[in-house]
Amino acid sequence: MRRLLTTLAILLVVLIAGMAALVLLVNPNDFRAYMVKQVEQRSGYHLTLEGDLRWHVWPQLSILAGRMTVTAPGAALPLVSADNMRLDVRLLPLLSHQLDIKQVMLKNAVFRLTADSEKQNQPNAPVAPGANQLDEISESLWKFEIDNLQIVDSLLIWQRVNNEQINVRDINLNLQRTGQHQAKMDLSSRVNRDQRDLAFTLAADIDLLQYPQQITAKVSQFNYQLEGADIPTAGIQGQGSVQAVYHQPTQQWVLSQLLLSANDSQLTGDASAQFGPIPAYKLNLSAAQLNMDALSGWRTAVSDNTAPQQAVAAAPVIANQIDGPQQSLRALRNFKAQINLQVDQVTYRGMNITQLVADANNQQGLLTVNVLSGKLAAGDFALPGSLDARTNRPLIKVQPVLRQIELGDLLKAFDMPLALTGAFSMQGNLSGDQLNAASFEHNWQGTAELSLQNAQLKQFNIQQLIQQAVARNDNSVRGQDNYQRHTEIKQMTAKGSLSKGTLTLSTLSAESPLLSLTGEGRLDIAGRQCDIMMNVLVKEGWQGNNALIAQLIKTPIPLRVYGPWQQLNYQIQLDQLLRKTLQDRAKEALNKWTEKNKSNQTGRDVNKLLDKL
Question: Which position has the higher pLDDT, 4 or 144?
Answer without folding.
Answer: 4
